[in-house]
Amino acid sequence: MSDTGKTGLYIHWPFCTRICPYCDFNVYKDRGADEAAWEEALRADLEWWAQKAGATLYTSVYFGGGTPSLMAPSLARAVIEAAAPVAGAEITLEANPTDAERERFTDFAAAGVNRLSLGVQSLRDEALAFLGRNHSATETIKVLEFARGAFERLTFDLIYARPGQSLDVWRAELAEALALAKGHLSLYQLTIEPGTAFEKAVARGDWAPADEEMTAAHYDLAQAMCADAGLAPYEVSNNAAPGHEAQHNLLYWRYQDYVGIGPGAHGRVRIDGQLYETVALDKPGEYLAATPEQRFALSPLTGVEQAVEMLSMGLRLSEGISLARYEALAGAPLNDRTLTEMAGDGLVHVEGDRLSLTADGRRVLNAIVASLV
Predict the structure, then answer these.
(1) Interatomic CA distance for residues 248 and 27, integer angstroms
(2) Is residue 117 within 8 Å of 156, Cβ to Cβ?
(3) How far is the C-alpha of 127 from the C-alpha of 73, rounded, in Å?
(4) Residue 19 has pLDDT above 80, yes or no
(5) Coiled-coil stretches, from where to where (predicted)?
(6) CB atoms within 10 A of CB 301
(7) What is the pTM of this model?
(8) What domains are there in the chain, each with its CATH number?
(9) Count of CB atoms within 10 A of residue 343's CB?
(10) Average of per-residue pLDDT values in the chain
(11) Which DSSP symbol is given to 3?
């Protein structure tokens, strides 16, 4: 069990109706999954982790993917019941804003899901076509309005800094999104990931990503508009009204323990006081054919490795990290001179035991982490 008292559960559902050109996740075309076989496998995983690590007190559950809303709501219910999360646990389901999936939302809510994460990505039809999405803007708005009433909590994603997306276009789209939001928005810069269709398109010269100056302008505009709407930037890419923060994702960013099951799922699990990185077999057929013990590779993490991961994740948060926790893990404190120089440059803020990034620092998060470690 986690030494913080909180342990999350992530379930990866690897199937999608189509593969988006920007996606580098472990996903496969949905060809009709054997729900009974998956229920048996996921239940067996939960039982195995309970025996292996005492992982039973789940404070959050997250169905990710892929498109987990393609699974039968009865399967989600079975997994939730087997996991038996603590009372009041946040239980999140990722979904796409299509009419077909909307028809299942009520059943997912009845199964125990209390937070929906919708992959909207854009409220413009031309952008949705470019991003390879299988929903329209009109359909999206209808689904969002329905979901607002069906779930206690709702969030959705938007992708910005798309090719040719002007600030005026982004301003108008974000204004519409804020009017549809229910306390939370996730805003992601379009990035070109290795091995994706977009990487090949850029390499061919089909189109060029937005430059750094335009990307920064999109980010700054989004932060200003979200702040005006009462959605604070609690994480680099996530804004929320007080009390609407994504509890499961906070567990990642605060570097707390979580079990990951399903093809390709990662985890951070503590066994007899030692924290392990866990990685599951990624191919669905191989996953189903294996036993739980065969499905997961476990690698112990040194204190320094944990400190670096904690720093990388925690500095994404506006609240930052505990310097004492870093020192306890790494066996040495962060360099005071480096911190002083960064503070003088307006990139970091140190107050007592807390280290956090300024607004300027969040723009160069990766560079700061590299310099600190």
Answers:
(1) 21
(2) yes
(3) 30
(4) yes
(5) none
(6) 17
(7) 0.94
(8) 7-251 (3.20.20.70), 303-373 (1.10.10.920)
(9) 15
(10) 94
(11) T
Query: CA–CA separation, 30 vs 26, rounded Å?
Result: 13
E strand residue ranges, 1-124: 7-13, 15-16, 28-29, 58-65, 90-95, 115-121
The residue type at 31: R
Nearest to 92 by CA among 64, 73, 70: 64
Question: What size, in residues, is the chain?
Answer: 373
Give the tokens for residue 306: 């944990």
CB atoms within 10 A of CB 279: 16
Read off the amino acid at residue 283: K
pLDDT in tens, 253-309: 999 999 999 999 999 999 999 999 999 999 999 999 999 999 999 999 999 999 999
Strands (E), 262-346: 266-271, 274-280, 296-300, 321-322
4: nearest Cα among 366, 306, 242: 306
Helix (H) and strand (E) counts in the chain: 16, 17
Provide the token pair at 120.
């909207």
User: Helices 303-314 and 323-330 meet at what angle, rounded to 10?
Assistant: 150
Residues 17-22, mean pLDDT to the nearest whole number: 86
Tokens of 126: 């031309």
